[in-house]
Amino acid sequence: MGWPRLASDERRRADLRACHAILARGSKSFVAASRLLPKRLRDHTAALYAFCRVADDAVDLVGPGGDSSAIARLDERLRCVYAGQPQEDPVDRALCDVVFACGIPRELPGALIEGFAWDAERRRYQSEDDLAAYCARVAATVGAMMVLLFGERSPALLARACDLGLAMQLTNICRDVGEDARAGRIYLPLAWLSEAGISPDDLVASPRNSPALAQVVKRVLAWADTCYHRADLGMTLYPYDCRIGVRSARLIYAEIGTIIAKNGYDSVSRRAYTSKPRKLWLLAQALPVLLWREKSPPLPAHPAVEFLIAACAKGG
């Protein structure tokens, strides 16, 4: 990597204000959990989130068969960041500071953009392994980068953080079945839909809930629960002052799955959301993580995320 050109303190503060504004407009669940991270990490977290958000939004603007140059532009922005010459954008400048300060290897945000490219081409996923590869790129990458922001590089912690990313993305997929189908996207494993007698093309043409579709959603949520439980095994590996924030994010996202279940696994005609009082209650439920003392058992990383952990092992 090159070394970033120097920016004035005033410019850096302005860039970070822009990133925090993007964070404030973004995921309410992520915002709630990020506020529980130590102050020393909030600027870096906002910068990382802002880049992920603007990149995702840029790809969302690409319709079926649309202008795929959005991905090329993101790749170029990332190239400039790692050359130490970010484009004239507050998010790019802030990200540049983060990747050099925290030693984030280019493979991680590069994999994230690759996952966004799969979104742009409306890729579908035949098997569980195929879907895991997608989730690794669009979500486990963020978990791994957060670990580096925390100042850690332990392969064991990276593996558990990636598990949490997988779980969160699977939860998102289950929440957005109807919304995605109406946008021409299918993320549920095609093999599982076929076993349930569901045609993906019919689901896109006329999204509607059914007992068969509900069973597929239930199956994906069960997979997500397995990943959440694996992620729990690494909670004591995080820096002490980061544990409440991570645990809160885990509980808030998992609650979405609980609500989907209460809705009869109907994610087509109903939208699962967590109320503010419920989030506050879940934040309180995260507090006991400060008392956890169990050591993480030697559990291997999910095969889909091994390349991310290997990239981190090489350094920034």
In CATH, the topology is named Farnesyl Diphosphate Synthase
Count of structural domains: 1
**CATH hierarchy class name:** Mainly Alpha
Shape: globular
Helix % is 55-70%
H and E order: HHHHHHHHHHHHHHH
Name the poorly predicted regions: none
- Coarse structural class: mainly alpha
Name the CATH architecture: Orthogonal Bundle
What's the number of helices?
15
Alpha carbon gyration radius: 19 Å
Number of strands: 0
Overall average residue pLDDT: 92
Question: How far apart are the termini?
Answer: 8 Å
Question: Largest sheet at a glance?
Answer: none
The CATH superfamily bears the name Farnesyl Diphosphate Synthase
Strand-residue fraction?
Answer: under 5%
Brief write-up:
The protein is mainly alpha-helical. The protein contains 15 helices and no strands.
Name some characteristics of this structure.
Farnesyl Diphosphate Synthase, 316 residues, single chain, mainly alpha, 15 helices
